[in-house]
Each structure stands twice: as structure tokens, then as C-alpha cells.
Amino acid sequence: MAQVTFKNGPVTLVGNEVKVGDQAPNFTVLANDLSPVTLKDSEGKIRLISVVPSLDTGVCDAQTRRFNEEAASLGDNVAIYTVSVDLPFAQKRWCGAAGIDAVQTVSDHRDLSFGEAYGVYIQELRLLTRAVFVVDANDKVAYVEYVSEATNHPNYEAAIAAVKALA
Fold first, then answer.
1. pLDDT tens figures, 102-146
2. Which of 10, 13, 66, 111 has the fewest CB atoms within 10 Å around its CB?
3. Are 44 and 137 in contact (CB under 8 A)?
């Protein structure tokens, strides 16, 4: 399992660690209107899945804004998701205030379906650790980054390069 710290203290990740080459696990999260969203909903597209502890923090805010800015250069065959355990109502309000229009924020608060399927659920905090996954159009995992310190930024350039390599 990936080793991760949160504010320099070790945390326990629950679920299955995902590796490059794996079949991407399906999941069910909630859209901002409370409708279910699954991996299969974007079948046939390249998926960039950005995972954050909470949109209401500086690094998570910056991460989501960065991928929103990059979206235009990635094309229409790329779906970008930001997954957190923030409530869908809070995500919708945050997106409106931040002008986020190219990234779909989805909530894993109800079942932790995504968190457990991708091994990003922090048991001690009931939050998701920071991570980035790129899944190809055939549901194979092409890129994985579990950020070793959850309060640090991910490697944006490597994630974007992984998406562009598939396009």
C-alpha cells in the first residue's frame, strides 16, 4: 500500500492500491445534483481523476483550478474529475465561486466507493488523500500518483503529459 503522511504524520489508507496497467476499478460517487456518477459514465474517454481532501483548502483549490485551466488544451475526449468527500452542495457552491467549468467535481461522502476502490481513503480523518489517476479510453490505468505528503501539490506536468500521451 502507498505510504502517505498528512501534516507529516503517518495515516492509514483503506482500500486497494491502484497501479499502472491495472483495470480501473468502477466506483459510484455523487454529482453536484446528487445523481450517481460512475467510471462507466465516461467510457471511451480518457479520464484524469484528481483526488483532494477538501476543496476548501489552499492546495486542493489550486489543484482543481490548475486542471480546470489545462482542460482546454486536452481536448473533448478527456473527462476531468475532482473527487473529494465534500458534500455535493458545498462542491457546487465552490465551483460557482471559483469559476470551475471544465472539471466535474464529484462527492465520495456517502459510500467512500471511490476512496476504497482506489486506496485513497484516510481512515483516521474520513478524508481522501491527494492523488492523481489517468485512465485510458479502455479503462486501463495509465498514470498513478499517490502524493506522499497529502498537503503537497501533485506533479501536474507528469499527469498532463500522461493524458496527452494517450490522446
1. 999 999 999 999 999 999 999 999 999 999 999 999 999 999 999
2. 10
3. yes
Of the residues 18, 48, 52, 60, only one is catalytic, namely 60
Alpha carbon separation from 84 to 31, 40, 60, 131 (Å, rounded): 11, 19, 9, 11
**Going by C-beta distance under 8 Å and a sequence separation of 6 or more, which residues neighbour residue 132?**
48, 49, 50, 51, 143, 144, 145, 147, 154, 155, 159
Q: Tell me if residue 95 is catalytic.
A: no
Rounded to the nearest 10 degrees, how much is the dihedral formed by the CA atoms of 101, 117, 113, 66?
A: -20
* Low-confidence stretches of the chain (pLDDT beneath 70): none
Which among 112, 116, 153 has a CA at the least distance from the CA of 132? 153
pLDDT for the residue 167? 84
